[in-house]
Amino acid sequence: MKTPENQPATERPVGAAIDDPVFTVDGLNVYYGRVHILQDVTFAVGAEPVAMVGRNGMGKTTLAKTIVGLLSAASGSVRFKDHSLLRRQPYQIVNAGIGYVPQGRRIFPSLTTHEHLAMVGASSGQRWNVDTIYDLFPRLADRRNLGAANLSGGEQQMLAIGRALLTNPEMLVMDEPSEGLAPSIVELLVDTFRTISEEGHEIFLIEQNLWFATALCDRVLVLLNGRVEADLKAKDLLEDEEAQQRYLGVA
Amino acid sequence: MRQFFTVGLNGLTLAGLYFLVASGLTLIFGLMRIVNLAHGTLYLLGGYVAWTVIRATDSFMLGALVAALLIGVVGLVLHQGLLRTIERDDMRVALVTIGVSLIGADQMLAYFGGVAHSIPTPEPLRTAVPVPLLGINYPAYRLTIVGIAVAVGIGLWLLLSRTRFGMIVRAGVDDREMVSASGINIRLVFVAVFLLGAALAGLSGAIGGAAFSLAPGVDMQFLLFSLVVIIVGGMGSVGGAALGAVLVAMVSNYALAYASSFAAVLVFGLMITVLAVRPQGILGKVAV
Amino acid sequence: MRLSSPAVRWTARGVLLAALIIYPFVVPQPGFWVVNIGIKSLWLGVMALSLIFLYKFTGLLSLGQLAFWGAAGYTIGYLVQLQGWSFAPAIALGIVFGILLGALVGSFAIRASGVYFLMLTLAVAQLMYFAALQASQFTRGHQGITGIRPPTFLGLDLVSARTQYLVALTIAVLLYVLCRYIEGTPFGLALRGLRDSPERMRALGYNVYAYKVVAFSFAAFIASIGGVLAIFYNRQIVPDGVGLIRTIDVLIAAVVGGVISLPGAFIGAFALTMVQNFSQFFTSRYLTLTGVVFVVVVLFFPQGIAGLWRQFTGYYLWAHDRWRPATRDAVEGKGVGAGAAQLSERSTD
Fold first, then answer.
1. Structural domain of residue C139, as residue ranges?
2. CB 3.0–4.6 Å: which of A51, C30, C78, C135 could bond A213 by disulfide?
3. Is pLDDT of C335 > 80?
4. Domain assignment of residue C312, yes or no
5. Cβ pair B243, B233 in contact under 8 A
6. Each residue of A205-235: pLDDT tens digit?
7. Contacts of A70 in chain B (CB under 8 A)
């Protein structure tokens, strides 16, 4: 039973409609074998960036993979604007406007930096093309002919983000982009994503790094044991150490 | 000494053919983790197709072209029709292709008979030409095979290293899910690579059918040697296929010339020696 | 009494064994039913048993078992027919040679797994075929070593179809019982542990590599005995005996029988032998028919004949409960290569 005493101040009830939903997940259920990983996950994302936090093993990566079609769902719906995303191939979902930055970066060791970007095939007239990615991350331009396996963790993350941006998405789904990065790089990423968000891209950020999540997003969802447990304002979560302890295991 | 050089050139000819066949096999394996054990069948069928077309039209070029295109389509039908539904289970895919090779061998026996056929070599290449440095004459057509193999090898290398298609293929070998999640329809790439690999086998059949004979059993010979070539050279690596083809063809050809009883035993020895030192093959990346 | 009680099972086994013993005395046309169907099914079943033993205990599917069959067969043929040895030492040496070749091949092939292992063993069997063609001073090349007259052992005249059948049956039953016995021994249990969780067994101090090489050599031993039985049946050994079509026969017998079921080896061998013998009456393209049956089995019935019942109950369960457990138990029931499909769905969260 949830009682008001152990609930932090919640901005809105979990699963409640928002004013301008662009991306909606409704009643999503995902299993591995008999293990019920995601249980009736329901939320919506509008123009403002949304973060999802939660400890390891709570189903965050499963959610991201299901959104981009790398895992199949048992039931529920995922919608982006006019597109239903479930039961479609990843490339179809990406072409419907979802850019995906995977957990662990998943760069291609056989390709150079430049080949990663050229591979996606963005044409030069688009908002994101190889040149604008190099403008965004000049360090990648310096290392354009280097094998991607030889890049540092931060550079690989920039590459993974660049690769996602080159699909010229309307919305970015990012799975722990700050993982293993130095604080200075994380700050750079916050600035980058803020700019991208202000340009009108929706952002759905999955994070364990509470600082990063709240620096970018004013709205934070909590995933606990495969359910969306809370829908909070970032500043409320930052001020509520008990909630942080309960949801994230940090004090 | 003349015999030594001639055997060496015969080995190179054979290496060229083994490379043409094995490069398709290794490309398909590298990208899709599909071991197509009907690959030798595609070679022999390509040879028979070319033989039929050339007999009817008297045009070698047309025969080779039709063989490459038709066998590419046959490979495509095989992939889309039989393998697609089970493609995540590499073992079942391999077993189905073995079944297909059995069916193919029997059907080809029914249509083309048990006697050996041979494609006439193209008119301008029927002469023997002097080979510089070695001081011997060697059939121009066989030298052309080596030339074609080198050209195809360079072409494949350029395709894989310099084009966007090649980048996608290499990325797909690393992580095909992530290629799809970058907005690229990896299935189309699979189709293209399967078509390319099968077409190479068909083309090899046409070319090889004019240097060696086309008969029942040749399918299994080419399957076996292309398997050994990619095991020795390293699976999934086109460069490895080239290296493996030269090694395997040279060992088996010199053995046939100087110790004919033990050619297969020596090839076996080459294979286990390489595997003992490098289980993933000479240019293979990781143990599979 | 429940159908699965031990008494019922032992009675059923006894009845089956009795029927198999009486079989050669009651069937008409012994030249066909005892030899072409009976003995052929038994030695092909022994070959399939060799393949299934290896798959069941190590998870490795081999296409190379005929190489050991051929090693034993050619050794015996060469020593008896070309060197004038008597059968007993030739058979002993043939089996030893088969096992040694098994140990050699095993020592490098075992490091591979899955489809790579399949390719390696296929290459080994095919190289044996070419070796048999080329080393003609030992193998008489294309023509093969022919006219081998089965011997008389301990008063048993193997030229007689019934006697040969009963000897083959005895050997097949003994090998089958031996495989079942090994399942329960510490060696058998260790092998299954290695198959399911090699890392844990390695941590427990087991030499994974050595265990697998021994298992591979044991499978080669079974295959060598199959070679001995086959040489009595064929009365010759020719290169095509180790050719790809025969390799596929063994594979088909194993896969059609259900690749994880030891009795399935003989069920599959019998089914294949029946199909091949009877299809010759109405089509000359029985190899095509064999291939089509095989492809259909692999595509739609991956558990083979022995697994048909389980597969149907599996569909029943599947229809009622779509989300099957992703545990090892499920893998065992699913047949060839199911593990690969599961691994590829594993996630990192």
1. 6-302
2. A51
3. no
4. no
5. yes
6. 999 888 889 999 999 999 988 889 889 888 8
7. 177, 181
